[in-house]
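The protein record passed on for reference:
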Amino acid sequence: MKIDLTNTTSSKINAALMDARRASGSTAAGMVLTLVIVTDEGSAYDALKAANDASREHPSRTLAVIKRAGRSPRARAETRLDAEILVGSDAGSGETVILRMHGELASHAQSVVLPLLLPDAPVVVWWPDNAPLNPAQDPLGALAQRRITDAVTAESPVGQLAQRATGYTPGDTDLAWTRITGWRSMLAAALDQRDVETTAAVVEGESYNPSVELLGLWLHNRLRVPVERVVTGGPGITSVTLRTKDGDIVLDRPDGLLGTLSMPGAPDRMVALKRRDTAELIAEELRRLDPDDIYATAVRTPVDRLRERIAGVEHAGPGGTVEQAHVEEHPVGERETPAATKKAAARKKTAQ
């Protein structure tokens, strides 16, 4: 069931929700939380689809906040709230309200959202992109027990980790951390099988990928060993090597689908390490609403603790031949920005 409300209020939206539930025979009693999605019109469809899929595991009321402040003085002066209500099969296992806030109302989104929260239920706020510098101090973030960001959508993903560390408040998390859950589980299980001392680690993956950096920082903190960061062509994380006196433990996933775990004195075995979609990541984050202390420790570790080596990245040269990329080694924290790297490459090509 779908209901459109134009130039409305929070009280009218609540009344429409009750009428829609009566008409569809559903109830709000089975909903376990309120998920607030702060996004723009361009990202709203994908974010809502992911939230609806996740609601099959976590029935919830989803409030999508789309701010339309307007650029012209006339548009900014027009304060209006439009709502689109979805109940039943259109909203997964919960109910969805899309709130489009026009004009000055966009600066006071919390006053619209607060009356629509489920009573006595946890609140989670998710920014699919354009997250605030300090989510806990954001007016909407202050309403939540859990705040979800995604560093990979930032202009400088690795630099965003430093910002997340500076403004960290218990309850903050990032999907860049959620993406490495499978890797952390597999590596921990591999070390549990062997009583060996790890002397070093190597993490390989795409450049400027915050998940790769977080995995390296996690290994550095948990194992207390130096970690080398090797840049490859991806996708995502491609390999992790743990150096031990008995030989290397290697978890390799070159294609983003299936991984291979190699251990000294044991046959190689295939492991499931498929790159997960956003719905699966959100569903995992909604399983726990308490502070994630391990994430806090990892993200607060300066990223320059890792040593980066750009190696193993092959690219097609003139005539289709394969050339090996230039090899460098320097602290991760001192890398150039992606834009600067592209400009440098363009200047080098021009010089040649």
User: Anything to note?
Assistant: Confidence is low (pLDDT under 50) at residues 311-331, 333-352. The first strand starts at residue 2 and ends at 5.
